[in-house]
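Any chance you'd type out a single protein's sequence alongside its tokenized fold?
>
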Amino acid sequence: MILKIIIDDRTHDINVPDALPADARDYFDQIDRDMDSGWRMGRDWVEAPDRIQRAQIVADRLLTAIETDNPKLGTLMAGYLLDRLPGVEAVEPDIQGEIQNTRFEMVRPTEAMAASPAMSKPAGAGLSKLEAMEQAGRDVTQVFKVGRGYRFSVFDHDTGTWMDAPLAPTEQEAGRLRQEVFRARYEALQAGG
């Protein structure tokens, strides 16, 4: 498996052995346990990092591994990202130290869904209420803090990438906007859209 990392408009390919995610499962679980009690992301402390935030934290460690010429750690961090963020194709870590600005490029949704059980049925399948709610929960992240504002991300099935919502001044406003997007996604999935 190959993970591309984009640093200063240069792309580096990290070759992750196919067996690594299974072999390093205990190590990846330990990384998650370490993040369970919270993590500093740039200037902000995040009490309970969500899946995207955890991937951003690990992408920052991957950047450090590349900068310090530590290929073993780089391969492990790339393996974590490929295992925990199904469908990730490339990562562009923020080199200014703002971890929450790290971006991910995802493969086409049908490819990601075929490769991982974590991504369920594609849009257009006319999901049941429960399936639609679960899929909408995977497509719309929780609200997270970015600098002095708040936002959430939405998986765009047309492009296969995560799109950031506009920055909201308060957590409540970002939560309200997230709920609207979540509801629209849920209804579209039920309708087969």
Q: What stands out?
A: Residues 120-193 form one domain. The beta strands are 2-7, 10-15, 39-41, 44-46, 88-92, 103-106, 144-146, 149-151, 153-156, 161-164. The two ends are 31 Å apart (CA to CA). Residues 153 and 164 are 4 Å apart (CA to CA).
